[in-house]
């Protein structure tokens, strides 16, 4: 009888250990498929080699950088890539001699992953890219949505390189220390329950991000599922774009974005964006005390992904930011009529109507 109990206990222990091993294995993402390596996606566009040997893929828009009066580095959002033309306006670029470079953030598209990615490393990638392309001592940075990592990072770590910055519908980290707890709690609860969970996992247990968003028991991020909490006006814009035919069909973009794997692209984005930051953006000092440049923050009051109350608080804490709150506008802010022109003119030449 005693031997039988020992056997049963041993069997139970082995079963438990096996269950833990199985659970652990399921939290580990598969290794990324690096571009340009055997079995990996091909390299189809230009890339620069960064300070640590990683490659960063980029795309250029507008006039040649050799003749440009204004040079912009655009930082794409979550699940996007260097093909993001959210602020590209061909006529305006030609008229004002504007050059813009977009790039695949690490792990996206054809840029090498960076498992050590931080807000600081993103800013240094931007500086590195600008130097490799010889953009000069100063340039503009525009960060859209989750691309705010590059915009806030640039303001913090490379302010001496900036001619101006625009943040468009920037995603907010609910755990920035300057936010009052009651404000972030209220804003957090405005999000769909599944997004509250997904964001919470990203912050508190980041090692579970891959498992949480690939398992089938509980709903993961609505954005990853392709059902983001967009406003009605956002959905109308998407429907119109689909009807007219997008220059780069969304399924093609999605395949390109995720071709090296999810772990070092969108899931790394969630860990960095909602994890513990090295600094609080609301403690950044004015990078342009003599008004030699401008910082703009644009947000729609119907943005369903980022509660407008948080942007209002940021604008209050940082009075040197030019805050533009647009009524009836959602997260797809640059795609509403006239907004591209307004964003570019306010940043580059100080015009805003």
Describe this structure as you would to a colleague:
It is a single chain. By secondary structure, the protein is an alpha/beta fold. The chain has helices spanning 2-27, 90-95, 119-132, 148-157, 181-188, 193-204, 209-212, 232-244, 250-257, 266-274, 308-317, 339-348; strands at residues 47-49, 55-62, 70-75, 98-103, 139-144, 162-168, 294-300, 322-326. An eight-stranded mixed beta sheet has the order 1-2-4-3-5-6-7-8, with helices on both faces. Helix 6 crosses helix 10. The N and C termini lie far apart (87 Å).
Strands, helices and their partners?
Elements: H1 2-27, E1 47-49, E2 55-62, E3 70-75, H2 90-95, E4 98-103, H3 119-132, E5 139-144, H4 148-157, E6 162-168, H5 181-188, H6 193-204, H7 209-212, H8 232-244, H9 250-257, H10 266-274, E7 294-300, H11 308-317, E8 322-326, H12 339-348
Helix pairs in contact: 3-4, 6-10
Poorly predicted runs are 2-23
Query: Mean pLDDT score, rounded?
Result: 90
Q: How many helices does DSSP assign?
A: 12
Beginning-to-end CA distance, first to last residue: 87 Å
The radius of gyration over CA amounts to 22 Å
* SS class: alpha/beta
Helix content: 25-40%
**Helices and strands, in N-to-C order?**
HEEEHEHEHEHHHHHHEHEH
Strand portion? 5-15%
Strand order of the largest sheet: 1-2-4-3-5-6-7-8
What does the overall shape look like?
Answer: globular
Q: Regarding quaternary structure, how should these chains be classified?
A: single chain
- Major sheet attributes: 8 strands, mixed
Overall number of strands: 8
